[in-house]
Design goal:
single chain; mainly alpha
């Protein structure tokens, strides 16, 4: 379980120092690490609205590769948490932040891998979230990532899985 106040401390620091890119990168990485470790941590992070801080950091630091890579990773791992979390991330326009990072950092495999993972996670539903990603051009960006990183099996695999989820029949 998350130590008492750890999540709150991270988000307090992110809000207090929004222009500090290094701090935002570190905090996005912490969210990513915590969200992937245990369901209970992911639920606690969702209840703290961790996605709000992550998406804000990605939008503020569009030109910082580390914030984008770790921010995409955090969205990926948070989106595993369930439909309510995915809907909340979509309401923040997380998809737009993800796609902007893919366009800005095409040569960076870690950005592309985590972005494909984030799209994969968000596209799990509901249908409105998947539709938003499709209409924003997520499929095209994934295809570019796969092509540009054809030598990277992880980008290829995650990209392929994200494309499959985007094109899955809706319920």
């Amino acid at each position: 379980m998350m130590s008492s106040g750890a999540g709150e401390s991270i988000f307090k620091a992110m809000k207090a120092h929004p222009q500090n890119a290094q701090l935002q990168e570190f905090c996005c990485g912490s969210v990513m690490d915590m969200a992937r470790s245990m369901d209970i941590l992911r639920e606690q992070l969702a209840s703290l609205k961790a996605g709000d801080a992550v998406v804000a950091a990605m939008k503020t630091h569009r030109d910082v590769v580390g914030v984008q890579a770790r921010g995409n990773g955090a969205i990926w791992k948070l989106s595993i948490g369930g439909e309510a979390t995915r809907e909340h991330l979509a309401s923040l326009r997380a998809g737009d932040a993800i796609l902007a990072s893919m366009k800005a950092f095409r040569p960076h495999a870690r950005v592309q891998l985590n972005a494909c993972g984030a799209i994969f996670g968000l596209a799990a539903g509901p249908d409105s979230v998947r539709d938003q990603l499709v209409s924003s051009g997520a499929g095209d960006e994934i295809l570019i990532a796969i092509k540009d990183h054809s030598d990277n099996p992880y980008v290829h695999q995650m990209g392929t899985e994200a494309l499959a989820r985007l094109s899955a029949p809706t319920s």
